[in-house]
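Could you show me some protein's one-letter sequence and the numbers that encode its backbone in two labelled lines?

___
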Amino acid sequence: MSTAAAPPPIAPPVAFSEPWQLRTFVIAAALVEKNVLDPDALEVRGDDALRSWLATVHQALLDKGLVSIEELEAEMARQVAASAARDIH
């Protein structure tokens, strides 16, 4: 019985200056590898790769019904409130 070799990891097309930027790419790449996103989702559109990947992931989550606009808006509001509460202290 022969097992197929695992595909090579997806290499980022840009250099990252911050760890969160790499995490953004890794999330998008993982979704490609799980067939949640199409491979072209990792193509850089425009001059901001991170914004491009985040927008692609966001749209895929909505398109596949994995999350709703209302859920995303509620979570964004919760995060803004949590951030403001931290800034007060």
